[in-house]
């Protein structure tokens, strides 16, 4: 056993560039959260535009079996950051103290609402839990976006221009995903306006991305040059293409294609953030990935754990989403 | 980050050292260290209720689902559906309050997270991937999917959710037990910071403490839920049989009471027997905590164990001292407990430790109350078992009242046990390595900490009230009627429309 520990402490497993892989994994986990729980958030925002009981129930039924699992990606993102880059986790979370508790508060409002909404069927009760659901669903992605923007520019403050524009972009992006998801799951119960909301959201998202890039050009140390690297240009161009494809697909009723495009947009956004940040991982302190990462032994152990567990997690989600594939039926009340 | 790094190690333990800590502005409304401690205590104390409910319900739900899927007595479908409602609401509230705890390590205890992250972050990350993911995905199927999936996949889902909740506790307690009994690490200086480096993962993650804690916690969860189930069913049984008011679904409540009693008969004695071993282990590994549990200030032999201690004045309550207490003491009992059978064994007193003693009164009285409840639960279990044996289980009104009064006491005992564990190891956050006061985020201001603390007091009071309200409604509404059940509908080949699970 000791020899196994010695071997694990000697060097990275299989000679892999583990610090970089963990940097990528942390952002991939954040992206997965923003995509999966993103369509729940987006559904929550669209919920606000519905006034009829049938439509509102349909939104809650559509996300009912999924949202709790989707939210766990945030827990895993936090855990991975903590385990691989503890000083970054500690620095970021304590620096943006009130922002983090804002996110937690929004998640509480959103998480309690679907369960509470169905507890009583009187109008006042449901009106208030509906508001809680909408407020949580809109605030959570906005504050998460602000967190990501502040992280990228290394701001010591939580309320910044780059935070606000990134927050708007991420919120719009969740509405993009939410519209496609609702079209897929609850087409019959919802009005056609959901499609138009999705198309408007994707336009708003692209505009917000342009605004974010404009602000970033003045805030990043490398300035405009950072934004003009080929991979970033390619990702931004791909986002425009995906946005157009999303709008066409959603209008034609190809909701699954539209949802996939929304996923592409989400991972594209996260990839841009990661690319702009690398090789640093905490721009506020200037710490690089190599400096902030834990030592070899725990990194190897974590890598083996993640390599074994994450495929299983993907399998759980596959089982869950296939069990509830296709549109919800009228009997499936929340 | 040299400036932050230097600040990370600054002792913020209040008192004399505070004056030379430049990060502290003099107009802080409240000490951020104190506010962070209160906030973490509050958020943990509220959060633990929900995992205890879900972990405790898990084995019952797996059993109910198995019996329901196998077919036969429709009461098992009622049991599954009724208790799944309580489980689902507990899980949701547990999720939203649990994420808070993970975040608080970073927001409020950044210095701790930086120092111990290499060793402490791993179990939390694995908990998310291995356990929380398993629970949260299969919960969707378990709560919403009865009509969507096959019997087999449904049974698998109940197992996955149950195993997931218990695996969650494995990783959380691995992390916690290391803080109680740190091993397998070395302290390395990084940028002037002392940082924990993992050296021997097996020693660090599989401390003997973990085994004691895990058995004690999981058994406590099942025992607490058994007491809760017994109280709810005793209420309906009492109303029907003793008060003579016709009650719906009385067969369901009979069944619930019997199942709860069986669980209580197993878990209640086990909890006390295993707790005895656990206390001995604490004596060996955390003597300061043990001394606080027994309020022993000076090192002494032949220390009595006060089963009932009655403070004769306020000072004995706020500052208990073993030798001065008035009560029923077993001569040499505490020595016997510590040493595993030697009534003359010596117990090291609190005065002999370099670190300041934890709040002894809190630890001493919490420990007593918890142990007292543990014995009361055994009495309840045997009382109920005896009435069942004599065929008077549904007629003994006094038993019903005792069960009703004890319905939440399991949860109270769990809270008290955690108070003993966590307050008892103060001032250390990592025993002997890092003080709690040194673990707090260096940049945190008193104003920020006060805002979130006040927010949590309000929000968590609201969440608790909502939880109590919703669970009370579920209990008031009772189980679904037999004619609404899936099994009944199938048997009668009734119209295909089947009501949803909720």
Describe this protein with a few key phrases.
heterodimer, A: 334 residues, mainly alpha, Formate dehydrogenase/DMSO reductase fold, two-stranded antiparallel ribbon, 2 strands, B: 502 residues, 8 strands, globular, disordered N terminus, disordered C terminus
Explained architecture:
The complex is a heterodimer of chains A (334) and B (502). With 334 residues, chain A is mainly α. Helix content of chain A is 79%, strand content 1%. Chain A contains 14 helices and two strands. Chain A is globular, with a radius of gyration of 20 Å. Chain A starts with a helix and ends in an 11-residue tail after the last helix. Chain B has 502 residues and is mostly helical. Chain B has a domain at 34-206 and 448-502. Helix content of chain B is 67%, strand content 6%. Chain B has helices at 2-8, 32-47, 49-70, 75-107, 110-144, 151-180, 201-205, 208-242, 250-285, 287-294, 314-318, 333-339, 360-389, 397-405, 409-424, 436-439, 446-477, 486-491; strands at residues 185-190, 193-198, 300-301, 305-310, 326-330, 346-347, 428-430, 434-435. In chain B, the strands form four sheets. Chain B has a two-stranded antiparallel ribbon. In chain B, strands 3-6 form a two-stranded antiparallel sheet. A two-stranded antiparallel ribbon of chain B has the order 4-5. In chain B, a hairpin with a 2-residue loop joins β1 and β2 (193-198). Mean pLDDT of chain B is 88; it is low at 1-27 and 493-502.
Binned strand content of chain B:
5-15%
Could you list the spans of chain A in which at least 5 consecutive residues all have pLDDT below 50?
A: none
The chain pair forming the largest interface, with residue counts per chain, is: A-B, 67 and 79 residues
Mean pLDDT of chain A: 92
Radius of gyration of chain B: 25 Å
User: Roughly how many Å apart are the termini of chain A?
Assistant: 51 Å
- Listing every helix as H and every strand as E from the N terminus to the C terminus, the arrangement of chain A reads HHHHHHHHHHHHEEHH
The domain count of chain A comes to 1
Supply the helix-strand structural class of chain B: mainly alpha
**CATH architecture grouping of chain A:** Up-down Bundle
In what order do the strands lie side by side in the largest sheet of chain A? 1-2
According to DSSP, the number of beta strands of chain B is: 8
Query: Averaging pLDDT over every residue of chain B, what do you get?
Result: 88
SSE topology string of chain B:
HHHHHHEEHHHHEEHEHEHHHEEHHH
Q: Structural class, from secondary structure content of chain A?
A: mainly alpha
Strand content of chain A: under 5%
């Amino acid at each position: 056993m000791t020899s196994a520990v010695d071997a694990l402490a000697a060097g990275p497993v299989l000679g892999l560039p583990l610090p970089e892989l963990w940097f990528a994994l942390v952002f991939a986990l954040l992206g997965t959260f923003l995509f999966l729980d993103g369509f729940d958030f987006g559904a929550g925002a669209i919920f606000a535009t519905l006034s009829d009981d049938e439509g509102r129930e349909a939104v809650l039924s559509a996300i009912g079996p999924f949202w709790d699992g989707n939210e766990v990606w945030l827990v895993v993102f936090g855990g991975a950051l903590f385990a691989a880059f503890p000083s970054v986790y500690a620095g970021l979370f304590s620096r943006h103290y009130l922002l983090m508790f804002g996110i937690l508060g929004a998640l509480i409002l959103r998480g309690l609402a679907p369960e509470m909404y169905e507890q009583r069927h009187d109008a006042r009760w449901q009106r208030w839990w509906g508001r809680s659901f909408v407020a949580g669903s809109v605030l959570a992605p906005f504050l998460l976006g602000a967190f990501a923007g502040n992280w990228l520019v290394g701001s010591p403050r939580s309320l910044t221009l780059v935070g606000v524009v990134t927050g708007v972009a991420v919120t719009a992006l969740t509405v993009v995903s939410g519209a496609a998801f609702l079209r897929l799951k609850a087409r019959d119960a919802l009005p056609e306006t959901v499609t138009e909301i999705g198309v408007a959201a994707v336009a708003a998202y692209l505009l917000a991305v342009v605004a974010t890039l404009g602000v970033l050009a003045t805030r990043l140390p490398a300035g405009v040059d950072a934004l003009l690297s080929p991979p970033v240009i390619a990702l931004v161009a791909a986002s425009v293409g995906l946005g157009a494809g999303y709008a066409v697909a959603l209008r034609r009723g190809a909701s699954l294609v539209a949802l996939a495009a929304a996923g592409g947009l989400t991972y594209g956004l996260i990839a841009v953030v990661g690319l702009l940040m690398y090789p640093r991982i905490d721009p506020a302190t200037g710490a690089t990935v190599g400096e902030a990462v834990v030592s070899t032994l725990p990194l190897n152990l974590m890598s083996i754990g993640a390599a074994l567990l994450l495929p299983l997690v993907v399998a759980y989600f596959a089982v869950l989403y296939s069990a509830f594939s296709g549109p919800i039926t009228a009997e499936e009340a929340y | 980050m040299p400036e932050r790094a230097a600040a990370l190690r600054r002792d913020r333990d209040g008192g004399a050292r505070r004056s030379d800590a430049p990060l502290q502005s003099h107009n802080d409304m409240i000490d951020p260290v104190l506010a962070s401690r209160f906030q973490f205590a509050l958020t943990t104390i509220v959060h633990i209720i929900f995992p205890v409910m879900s972990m405790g319900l898990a084995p019952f739900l797996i059993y109910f689902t198995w019996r329901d899927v196998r077919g036969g007595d429709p009461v098992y479908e009622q049991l599954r559906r009724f208790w799944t409602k309580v489980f689902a609401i507990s899980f949701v509230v547990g999720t939203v309050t649990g994420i808070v705890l993970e975040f608080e390590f970073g927001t409020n205890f950044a210095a701790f997270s930086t120092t111990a992250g290499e060793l402490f972050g791993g179990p939390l990350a694995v908990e998310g991937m291995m356990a929380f993911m398993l629970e949260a995905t299969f919960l969707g199927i378990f709560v919403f999917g009865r009509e969507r999936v096959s019997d087999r996949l449904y049974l698998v889902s109940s197992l996955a959710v149950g195993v997931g909740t218990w695996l969650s506790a494995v990783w959380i307690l691995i992390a916690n037990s290391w803080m109680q009994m740190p091993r397998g690490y070395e302290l390395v200086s990084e940028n002037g910071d002392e940082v924990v480096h993992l050296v021997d993962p097996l020693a660090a993650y599989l401390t003997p403490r973990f085994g004691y804690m895990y058995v004690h916690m999981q058994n406590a969860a099942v025992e607490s839920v058994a007491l809760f189930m017994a109280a709810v069913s005793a209420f309906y049984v009492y109303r029907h049989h003793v008060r003579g008011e016709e009650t719906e679904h009385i067969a369901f409540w009979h069944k619930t009471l019997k199942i709860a009693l069986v669980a209580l008969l197993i878990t209640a004695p086990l909890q006390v027997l295993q707790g005895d071993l656990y206390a001995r282990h604490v004596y060996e590994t955390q003597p300061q905590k043990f001394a606080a549990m027994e309020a022993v200030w000076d090192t002494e032999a032949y220390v009595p164990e006060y089963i009932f201690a009655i403070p004769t004045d306020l000072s004995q309550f706020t500052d208990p001292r073993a030798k001065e207490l008035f009560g029923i003491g077993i001569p040499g009992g505490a020595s016997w407990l510590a040493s595993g059978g030697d009534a003359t064994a010596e117990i090291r007193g609190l005065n002999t430790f370099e670190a300041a003693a934890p709040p002894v009164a809190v630890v001493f009285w919490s420990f007593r109350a918890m142990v007292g409840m543990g014995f009361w639960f055994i009495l309840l279990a045997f009382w109920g078992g005896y009435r069942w044996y004599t065929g008077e289980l549904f007629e003994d009104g006094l038993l019903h009242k005792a069960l009703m009064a004890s319905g939440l006491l399991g949860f109270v005992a769990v809270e008290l046990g955690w108070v003993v564990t966590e307050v008892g190891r103060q001032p250390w956050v990592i025993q002997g390595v890092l003080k709690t006061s040194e673990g707090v985020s260096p940049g945190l201001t008193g104003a920020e900490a006060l805002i979130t603390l006040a927010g949590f007091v309000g929000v968590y009071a609201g969440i608790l009230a909502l939880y109590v309200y919703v669970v009370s409604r579920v209990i008031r509404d009772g189980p679904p009627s037999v004619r609404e059940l899936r099994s009944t509908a199938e048997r009668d080949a009734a119209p295909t429309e089947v009501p949803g699970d909720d």
